[in-house]
Structures are given as structure tokens and as C-alpha cells.
Specification:
By secondary structure, the protein is α/β, with parallel strands linked by helices. It has a single domain, classed as Alkaline Phosphatase, subunit A, CATH 3.40.720.10. Helices cover 26% and strands 16% of the residues. It contains 13 helices and 23 strands. The strands form 7 sheets. It has an 8-stranded mixed β-sheet with strand order 5-4-12-1-14-17-2-18, with helices on both faces. It has a 4-stranded antiparallel β-sheet with strand order 20-21-22-23, with helices on one face. Helix 1 crosses helix 9 and helix 8 crosses helix 9. The N and C termini lie far apart (45 Å).
Length: 504
């Protein structure tokens, strides 16, 4: 544990404010304030946005769990680390030489606490002064057949055959036996009022208790707290009352266009049995080819889990608001990536389009420009330099020269009304869909670039997609081949190359 200097609180923002980073998994824009689905129920996220600053065009730098989190917590772009797949940070040749954000906070006298899914997999004990729950219990609970974890028995075949994580969704009440996680610890459920707490409820409870403990200690040491909620990652299970919020017969589907995938090229660039395309086909087959019925069943479970995690987020936010820390704490809420809900015949993450690449991002802090909606495109790699700037952290993001350079730009000029600077970053935010099966070079990846108005996608093959969001929010009309947009396309491609540092 660090030996810490005394830091006194007071005023609107001290030199070293406390930090709470709340992360969700697979959370797309299905919140009221982000407008991704009109029936989403997220009162706590909505209230946070009203009291803070909402980033309308925040993007994941690589929309799949492991490398997205590696990027966020080291501040290194995937194209600078060649981290495009599922390599743990400590085994990644570049990023193992980088300091996590928590380690830099420790070096600057902060007490670091964490629980849940933050870094993917191993929680890296060297980054934390205090850790919460057993990481084996992050996902789930899972249906349990007495021998192994299985998919929910009410999920129809063949979708159920996908297995206990991605192939499972449904109410807690409609399965008899549950287990917490990989160690198959029993999860007790009799009814919604008589059951064990789910994993994310335990993470929220832990955070609430720790905030109270820190207050009771009356210590002047600043803290960094990370709370990683897994919902709405699969398996999509929640108590009945959350499913009851979204009756199947009343559900509306998000905008969808038949044949929308025909002018897109991801299918040409990855294995057609990739999870996203395969899951979509299997879900439709499970409901006799009825797309509306199939998506509604999955959507109900997803919206239920979004409402469930919103409630847990509210517990953490309320604990901060009711503590002495409320006027000297920056709270950041975001997700590692989004989720494609059947658009373009794709049901998964790890795609170059809006539903997968866009993430919710809200910042509430002292001197926040309350209620602002920032249209500037930003990305998760910007969080590291933002906290370095806002909390006045000293030091580098790497242990030695083998580590990756700090990427991204501070968001402080965009949300802090006392800042006298302008945004210094690019006009757009860069995402990568990793092409790890065929090529591990920077040139061999697929790039998606989102500005306020445009999304430009360039595949390793040179195939392109171009969407103009003011007229086409669902990215239905690929304009890349039209002569009148060649200048726009060239400019966006040039901006990508400037960020990556090479011509692709």
C-alpha cells in the first residue's frame, strides 16, 4: 500500500479529486437520454446525464471486451499496441510494459479500490489497494443441471445450443436451479423477494459500503474506485420485475431495413460463421424464421438487464450523493462497447457500425457544464488522459520504452466550464474491428471512423462504407461508391491515416 500525502478537501474542485469509474459490459445506447430504444427505462443514468455532461458520440476503440478494456486502462490505442484480440494485458508484448490507470493513481497518492469486471479476466492485484468480489462470480447466475452450467431451459433450439453465456436469456423464476459462476457455487432463488443477490447487486452493495467506510474513516487521502458491472452482457438473466417492465406484445423494434446488409462488407472480411452472423441466423431459426418474434424475445431480456444495471448504478450514485465526497468527486459512466441487435443481420458486438461501436458516456464532476450534450466524437482511449489532466497526475503511462505511448486527448475542455482550453483532438473517433485470424499487422485491420456527421469504414481489403448521420442515423445507405462523396471519403480516410500514423 502507498504512503500517502495529506490532501485537504474544500472548494468546488481540489487539486486531487476522488474518482469513481463505473463500467458496464455490452451496453449500447439503449438508455432514455441516448435514445437508442424508445422503451428503455434508465432513470438513474438519465438523472446523471441531467446533472453532468453527456457525450453523444462516444466510441469504443475496439468493440470487443478484452482489447477495449486494455486500451482504456493503459491509454494506448490498439493500433499502437497491436492488441486486436483476446490477449490478457500482462501477456500482451507492448501493454505489459504500461502502467494501468490505477497504478498511476497509486503513484500519485491515491487509494485504489475496485470490484467487478474492469480489466478483462484477471483483476491484476498490483493495481488495487483493495479488491471486492471473486472474479469467478462476475458472469451469471447460470442455470445449472447438477453437473455443468447450461443455457436457460426456455430458450428454444438451436439458439440454446450456443451455451450458458451467449445462448442464455430469461427470467430467474422460470428455471429451477442456478449457480453463481465458474466455480458452480449455488445461487438460491425462491422468488424475487427471497433469493441471493445477483453479482451486480453485490458489486453495487460493496461500492455503497466502501463509500460509507471511507467517509467514516475521515481520511484526507483521495481515492480511485472502479465498479465494473457485467450487465447487460450475456447471459441475459434478471428478476421478474425487470422483465415485467417490457411485455413482449408491447415491444417496439429498433429501426430495421430488409436487405440492409447487402451494401456492407464485413461479411466479406471475416468468417461468415463469425458469432454475430451465426447468432442472428440461429435466433431466427429458433423462432421459425419470424424475425420480429425472435428479436423481441432477445430484446426483452436485454432491456430487462439494462433496467436492472441502471438500478445498480443508481445505488452507487446515491451513495456518492449522500456522502461528504459529492462535491469533490468526478464520476465517469461508460461501457466497453455496444451491441448489435440484429441490424445488418448481425447479433453481437465486434462490428464497425454504430450499434456496436458507440458507447454511452456521462461525466459528472465539480465545475461540470451541467446538462451539456457534447456532439464532438470522442473515444474510450480519451479517459486516461482526461483523468491525468483533471486530477493533476504526474508521471508516465509506461514503465519503460517498450510500453505504448499515451493516446487520446483530455476531455476536460469539453465538460469543465472552468477550463480555458479548446479540444485538441481529431474531429472523429477511431474504432478497429480486429482481423486477428488473418493478419495481425496494423495494415491488416478494419477501421471505422465516426465524426459528428459521418461514419467511414475501410476494410483491410480496401472495401469501403460511408454513412451520413444527419440523414441516415441507422446507417442504411452506403454512399461510398457515389461520385459526389469522394472528397468527403478522402478527407475521412486521411484523418484515419493521421491517427494511425501510416497510410493504410
Amino acid at each position: 500500500m502507498c504512503v500517502l500525502p495529506e490532501i485537504l478537501y474544500g472548494g468546488s474542485k481540489d487539486k486531487h479529486p476522488n474518482v469513481i469509474l463505473i463500467m458496464c459490459d455490452d451496453l449500447n445506447d439503449y438508455q432514455g437520454v441516448f435514445g437508442g430504444h424508445p422503451q428503455a427505462k434508465t432513470p438513474n443514468i438519465d438523472a446523471m446525464a441531467a446533472a453532468g455532461v453527456q457525450f453523444m458520440n462516444a466510441q469504443s476503440n475496439i468493440p470487443v471486451c478484452q482489447p477495449s478494456r486494455n486500451c482504456l486502462f493503459t491509454g494506448v490505442y490498439p493500433h499502437d499496441s497491436n492488441d486486436f484480440g483476446w490477449t490478457g494485458r500482462l501477456k500482451q508484448p507492448v501493454l505489459k510494459h504500461n502502467k494501468t490507470l490505477m497504478q498511476l493513481f497509486q503513484e500519485n497518492g491515491y487509494y485504489t479500490l475496485g470490484t467487478g469486471k474492469l480489466l478483462h479476466g484477471n483483476y491484476e492485484p498490483q493495481s488495487w489497494d483493495e479488491w471486492g468480489m471473486n472474479t469467478k462470480h462476475n458472469y451469471g447466475p447460470f442455470p445449472f443441471d447438477g453437473d455443468k452450467l447450461v443455457a436457460h431451459p426456455e430458450v428454444p433450439q438451436p439458439y440454446q445450443s450456443i451455451g450458458p453465456i451467449d445462448g442464455s436469456y430469461g427470467r430467474l423464476s422460470t428455471c429451477e436451479t442456478w449457480a453463481y459462476g465458474w466455480d458452480k457455487k449455488p445461487f438460491r432463488y425462491n422468488n424475487d423477494a427471497d433469493r441471493d443477490l445477483m453479482q451486480d447487486e453485490l458489486h453495487a452493495q460493496w461500492a455503497e459500503n466502501k463509500i460509507k467506510e471511507l467517509e467514516d474513516k475521515n481520511n484526507t487521502q483521495p481515492f480511485f474506485m472502479g465498479v465494473g458491472f457485467v450487465n447487460p452482457h450475456t447471459p441475459l438473466h434478471a428478476p421478474d420485475r425487470f422483465f415485467d417492465m417490457f411485455p413482449i406484445e408491447d415491444l417496439e423494434l429498433a429501426g430495421w431495413l430488409a436487405g440492409d446488409a447487402e451494401d456492407t462488407y464485413l461479411r466479406d472480411s471475416i468468417n461468415p460463421n463469425n458469432k454475430g452472423y451465426r447468432y442472428y441466423r440461429m435466433l431466427l431459426e429458433s423462432y421459425g424464421g419470424d424475425r420480429e418474434l425472435a428479436i423481441k424475445h432477445f430484446l426483452q431480456a436485454y432491456l430487462a438487464c439494462v433496467a436492472f444495471v441502471d438500478e445498480q448504478i443508481g445505488k452507487v450514485l446515491t451513495a456518492v450523493e449522500n456522502s461528504k465526497f459529492k462535491d469533490n468527486t468526478i464520476v465517469i459512466l461508460t461501457a466497453d462497447h455496444g451491441w448489435q441487435m440484429g441490424e445488418k443481420d448481425y447479433l453481437f458486438k465486434n462490428s464497425p457500425w454504430e450499434e456496436s461501436a458507440r458507447v454511452p458516456m456521462v461525466i459528472k464532476a465539480p465545475d461540470t457544464n451541467v446538462g451539456a450534450k457534447i456532439e464532438q466524437s470522442v473515444s474510450l482511449v480519451d479517459i486516461y488522459p482526461t483523468l491525468v489532466d483533471y486530477c493533476d497526475l504526474k508521471g508516465d503511462n509506461k514503465f519503460n520504452e517498450q510500453g505504448g505511448n499515451l493516446g487520446g486527448y483530455s476531455l476536460v475542455p469539453l465538460f469543465d466550464k472552468s477550463a480555458k482550453r479548446k479540444w485538441e483532438g481529431p474531429s472523429g473517433a477511431l474504432s478497429i474491428v480486429g482481423n486477428i485470424g488473418a493478419n495481425t499487422t496494423v495494415e491488416g485491420q478494419h477501421y471505422s471512423y465516426r465524426t459528428k456527421e459521418w461514419r467511414y469504414i475501410r476494410y483491410a481489403s480496401g472495401q469501403e462504407e460511408l454513412y451520413y448521420h444527419p440523414n441516415d442515423p441507422y446507417e442504411w445507405n452506403n454512399l461510398a461508391g457515389m461520385s459526389e462523396y469522394q472528397k468527403n471519403k478522402k478527407q475521412l480516410y486521411t484523418e484515419i491515416c493521421q491517427i494511425v500514423g501510416i497510410e493504410l
